[in-house]
């Protein structure tokens, strides 16, 4: 509705402005990191983000994804790096998350091969 559109517009404006982009990305990073508490069996609600925050944040993030949700919808899809979250240099750390279909060792090997193929330093030869 109108509230979700307003939130999206505000966040989108902050991300588009070069002076506010990094602080907005930092805030998003902290918001996502605060949700890591919810993955635990015993949640400390003094530490975890609220349900309301994440319902609103999810609606904003989904709206931000609209340009590349459909692979046939323009240039945005071609600029995505699907391996970004595995490269370990992003804002959100996924190392402790459960991997589906691979062991941590298999994933580490794949990441090293990917970095080597891209010529990224830190990859073993």
TrEMBL record:
Alphabetical keyword list: Nucleus, Transferase, Ubl conjugation pathway
Domain of life: Eukaryota
One function term, GO molecular function aspect: ubiquitin-ubiquitin ligase activity
GO biological process, one term: ERAD pathway
Main location: nucleus
Keyword Nucleus: yes
Coiled coil residues, start to end: none
InterPro entries: Ub_conjug_fac_E4_core, UBE4
One of the record's GO cellular component terms: cytoplasm
Annotated protein name in UniProt: Ubiquitin conjugation factor E4 core domain-containing protein
